[in-house]
Design goal:
Elements (H helix, E strand, L loop, with lengths): L2 H8 L4 H14 L5 H9 L7 H15 L4 H11 L11 H9 L4 H11 L9 H7 L1 H11 L5 H9 L12 H5 L5 H6 L6 H15 L3 H9 L6 H10 L1 H5 L3 H6 L8 E9 L2 E2 L4 E10 L5 E12 L5 E13 L4 E9 L11 E9 L2 E10 L2
Length: 365
């Protein structure tokens, strides 16, 4: 994520949106002290990140609501469908996580309700961290729910490495704890849910790749939904050229191809400019092959060493004795996750995990 989009994203919680929350709260609870809420919520707003702003909303709601926890939830349940942003709605599950630890059953039911309006994925992790056995038992039931938002919450909320949240160390060290949830969702007909299951499993591959491979190899991969999950769950292992992962998606064999006409244009660029990588993949056998084609860039670091980053290109079935032309454009610009430095950057073509050709481009100072 670049700095500019990050700055724009936190404006989801700007002064105008806070005013909207105050108006809608007053509509569902006429005694709401909108003036006090806005004064507190707007204080120092510019310095806060998006997640800090989200937390600020729930904290200010709590500060001005003169009600007990259960009665406050009733008001917030009425508020949820009136909010004009799904991300803003995440402040309501945050309220539950912050003030509802004493009322487990009530709070978990509230998280189930609120997740349909935004997501309770961040909030439920607090309950998992404090009582993982009890929380997973509830989430197992969620994985069987008719509502796709609730089913996704079961998977997304229990991800070991959910972005923008703390890690769930117990599940990270023992992924079998959430295995029953994933098994219930392995052929889900909702793409929204399948993406979450795939991301959950991809998280696990960072710590327990063989566990994920064993699990997926036991799944019915003739089911199109399960096969989709498998392909996306194994994406990190596929980029690494893991042969078991490649075999699962039908690309485990040695590639019988030649890579020709490899070039990067332009070969010399300034920061912010675009390169185009192109090459031809020629079959050297008469039979068709399933191929996974990726490329890697050896990025130059500040100390002059390099660090490789693999990018997915395409998966295809190459007919025997045929050739396919491949190209991909990429803008070389600064990211919050990557700084670019001047120098020669090697580019490698990977087919079924094997490096078959290389070229390079240069970034000017």
């Amino acid at each position: 994520m670049t700095d500019q989009p990050s700055q724009a994203l936190k404006e989801i919680f700007n002064a105008e949106r806070l005013q909207h929350i105050a108006v809608e709260m007053t509509a569902v609870y006429p005694a709401f002290n909108a003036e006090a809420f806005l004064e507190m919520a707007n204080e120092g707003l510019a310095e806060l990140s998006i997640m800090q702003r989200m937390a600020r909303v729930s904290e200010c709601l709590h500060a001005v609501l003169p009600l007990n926890y259960e009665d406050s939830l009733t008001v917030l349940r009425n508020l949820a469908p009136r909010l004009n942003s799904g991300f803003v709605s995440i402040s309501l599950p945050h309220y539950v996580a912050t003030y509802g630890s004493h009322a487990f059953d009530t709070s978990m039911e509230a998280l189930k309700y609120f997740t349909a309006f935004g997501s309770s994925e961040f909030a439920v992790r607090h309950f998992l961290r404090s009582d993982i056995e009890r929380s997973l038992a509830v989430m197992h039931q969620w994985s069987l729910d008719d509502n796709e938002h609730v089913r996704r919450l079961a998977s997304e909320g229990s991800r070991p490495r959910l972005p923008w949240s703390f890690r769930l160390e117990q599940i990270q060290s023992n992924p079998a704890l959430a295995a029953a949830i994933l098994d219930n969702l392995k052929a889900d007909d909702s793409l929204y849910v399948r993406k979450s299951v795939a991301n959950h499993l991809n998280d696990i591959t960072k710590d327990h790749p063989e566990w994920v491979l064993d699990l997926i190899e036991g799944w019915p991969l003739d089911n199109k939904h399960t096969a989709w999950i498998a392909k996306h769950a194994l994406r990190s292992l596929i980029k690494q050229g893991n042969q078991r992962a490649l075999a699962i998606i039908g690309a485990g064999g040695k590639p019988e191809v030649e890579i020709t006409q490899v070039k990067v244009e332009p070969p010399v660029i300034g920061l912010g400019e675009k390169i185009t990588l192109s090459f031809a993949v020629k079959s050297t056998v008469e039979t068709s092959q399933r191929l996974v084609i990726d490329y890697a860039i050896d990025y130059v670091k500040a100390n002059g060493s390099t660090s490789a980053k693999v990018f997915k290109l395409k998966a295809l079935t190459l007919p025997g004795a045929s050739t396919v032309n491949v190209s991909r454009g990429q803008q070389i610009k600064e990211l919050t996750t990557r700084r670019h430095y001047a120098g020669r950057h090697a580019v490698h073509i990977l087919v079924n995990g094997e490096r078959l050709a290389s070229t390079s481009f240069e970034i000017l100072p």
